[in-house]
Design brief:
This protein has helices at 50-65, 73-89, 91-102, 106-127, 163-176, 191-202, 217-225, 239-252, 274-286, 306-318, 338-354, 390-393, 409-417, 432-441, 474-480; strands spanning 12-14, 16-18, 21-23, 30-34, 41-46, 135-136, 142-150, 153-157, 180-184, 210-212, 232-236, 255-259, 265-268, 298-302, 357-360, 380-383, 400-406, 421-422, 424-428, 446-449, 464-465, 468-469, 482-490. The protein is of the alpha/beta class and 501 residues long. It folds into two domains: 8-260 and 467-486, Aldehyde Dehydrogenase, Chain A, domain 1, CATH 3.40.605.10; 265-449, 3-Layer(aba) Sandwich (Aldehyde Dehydrogenase, Chain A, domain 2). It has a seven-stranded mixed sheet, sandwiched between helices. A six-stranded mixed sheet has the order 10-9-8-11-12-22, sandwiched between helices. A three-stranded mixed sheet has the order 1-5-4, with no helix packed on it. A hairpin with a 5-residue loop joins strand 6 (135-136) and strand 7. Helix 4 runs parallel beside helix 5 (163-176). The longest helix has 22 residues, at 106-127. 52% of the residues are buried. It binds NADP nicotinamide-adenine-dinucleotide phosphate and magnesium ion (MG).
Length: 501
């Protein structure tokens, strides 16, 4: 792959990656992934379905029982580290491909997604040799210890908003712990995961340890989630599909971890540093075109500062540079698909019906040339929103923020928690007691104080309530990919219980 290829006119071609081989789908079918900035076809991709998932699960099982189980922790760590270096060496090309497939601005792909991918593989490379059991001080002449073992074959289904980064969040801890994987990338953005497959081969992972099967959710995804041959399924995406995954897994009692939607409160108190809070509100909702599960999509403003804040926020939102995502100056690219664009438009209509005010944006921008066919939308602010409205309760997944006002802290906490989701929350205040009180009272898996969207491979990320269960990143991610075995050894040499002589 060269850097110019990502934007090339002739579509690229990708096959499935199964058992270390690049193969066509059993059905021979392919699908196209468009560049959302222009609507043109970026790549033609083999369309995996049940038959290919069966093959991939069998390959992952064979690798798990075979070569991979005999690979030492140190070797696994070295391969993961090598992979991180291979990615880093090709970060620029991969960022360009990510931008071409997903539409995110190149500066985000280059300075946020790719460094995050490298960081995650590097971080979990270090963990491979540090996954340990314990000795337990049980009474009597007994020795009790635990073994922390891999779960086995893991199915991993990922979304399109951070395609390669989500692959890294899932693959890195699974491989560090000694599991094998069948990964299904999202149909909208399969290309970078498949490029990653090439680097996985180059890093020396044995055949079948990682299998990558692009295809559609209803076919390939459903076949993977309901497969009897997998030991665990990890999913990131909508709460609606998360529930389908949990139901499919229930039949086989497959272990499940889910990272689902959010409707995060981002809260500004009157004592906040307004400039910082405005920046935080912008990062909270316009980053990645708002296609972020932890986006600050409910902006709570204290009634004392509401007018001043909104005036400045609106002005800044109106200046955001929306357009060609390959241009380094661009701050927002297109939404990932026409479907997402239409979904956002329908929420703008709904906001008006519900009695909210569309304070700014609310429609696509006027762009020229090829970009007229892209799925662009303007940064949009709904004001006069009530927390009970659907635009305040449902995940829109676009550059659309619902502004709600509050009077005091108890009113705020009640409203902030009155939502089905609980992924993240932000608060802007100079009062440290209030900030930490909020951190305790909010029902969310991640809390940001005077910052937003901060993440690191070492820090756990995941949801409360309908935002899912399990934690990604940090040592907590290893809990999802290991299981504990308790081993008892008699040290007395005497018969136990009353059945002896
Ligand atoms: P989605 O349907 O939940 O897609 C996420 C992943 O699940 C994709 O790989 C998808 O495959 C797969 N999938 C879909 N249906 C499946 C099924 N029945 N069984 C197994 N896997 C299945 O998300 P979406 O439709 O792309 O987006 C819809 C909404 O989901 C967004 O508007 C947003 O609210 C939410 N979302 C949340 C996140 C997040 O990070 N929490 C990410 C993306 C979307 P295909 O793409 O190939 O169909
Ligand atoms: Mg695409």
């Amino acid at each position: 792959m060269s850097s110019t290829q990502a934007a090339a006119e002739t579509p690229r071609k990708y096959q499935l990656f199964i058992d270390g081989q690049w193969v066509d789908a059993e059905s021979g079918k392919t699908f196209e992934t468009p560049n959302p900035a222009t609507g043109k076809t970026l790549a033609e991709v083999a369309e995996g379905d049940k038959a290919d998932i069966d093959k991939a699960v069998a390959a992952a099982r064979k690798a798990f029982e075979g070569k991979w189980s005999k690979t030492s922790a140190r070797e696994r760590g070295r391969m993961l580290y090598k992979l991180s270096q291979l990615i880093e060496a090709r970060a620029k090309e991969l960022a360009e491909l990510e931008t071409a497939d997903n539409g995110k601005p190149i500066r985000e792909a280059q300075y946020i997604d790719l460094p995050g991918v490298v960081e995650n593989f590097e971080y979990f490379a270090g963990w491979a040799t540090k996954i340990e059991g314990e000795t337990i001080p049980v009474p009597g002449q007994m020795f009790n210890y635990t073994l922390r073992e891999p779960v086995g074959v893991c199915g991993q289904i990922i979304p399109w908003n951070f395609p390669l980064l989500m692959a890294a969040w899932k693959l890195a801890p699974a491989l560090a712990a000694g599991n094998t994987v069948v990964l299904k990338p999202a149909e909208q953005t399969p290309t970078t995961a498949l490029e990653l497959g090439k680097l996985i081969q180059e890093a020396g992972f044995p055949d079948g340890v990682v299998n990558i099967v692009p295809g559609f959710g209803e076919t390939a995804g459903a076949a993977l989630a309901s497969h009897k041959g997998i030991d665990k399924i990890a999913f990131t995406g909508s709460t609606e599909v998360g529930k389908l995954i949990a139901k499919a897994a229930a039949d086989n009692l497959t272990k499940v971890s889910l990272e689902l939607g959010g409707k995060a409160p981002n809260i500004v108190f009157a004592d906040a540093d307004m400039e910082q809070a405005i920046n935080g509100a912008m990062m909270g909702i316009f980053f990645n075109q708002g296609q972020v599960c932890c986006a600050g999509s409910r902006l709570f403003l204290h009634e004392e500062v509401k007018d001043e804040f909104l005036e400045r926020f609106k002005e800044r939102a109106g200046k955001i540079k929306v357009g060609d995502p390959t241009d380094k100056a661009t701050q927002m690219g297109p939404q990932v698909s026409e479907e997402q664009l239409n979904r956002i438009k329908s929420y703008v209509d709904l906001a008006r019906t519900e009695g909210a005010t569309v304070l700014s944006g609310g429609c696509p921008p006027t762009l020229e040339g090829d970009f007229q066919k892209g799925y662009f939308f303007q940064p949009t602010i709904f004001s006069e929103v009530q927390n009970t409205m659907r635009v305040a309760q449902e995940e829109i997944f676009g550059p659309v923020v619902s502004v709600i006002t509050f009077k005091d802290e108890s009113d705020l906490i009640r409203q902030a928690n009155e939502v089905a989701y609980g992924l993240s929350a932000g608060i802007w205040t100079r009062d440290i007691t209030r900030a930490h009180r909020f951190a305790r009272e909010i029902k969310a898996g991640v809390v940001w104080i005077n910052t937003f969207n901060m993440m690191n491979a070492a820090s756990p990320f995941g949801g409360y309530k309908q935002s899912g269960y399990g934690r990604e990143m940090g040592k907590h991610a290893l809990e999802m990919y290991t299981q504990v075995k308790s081993v008892w050894v008699d040290l007395s040499g005497k018969p136990i219980g009353w059945f002896g002589k």
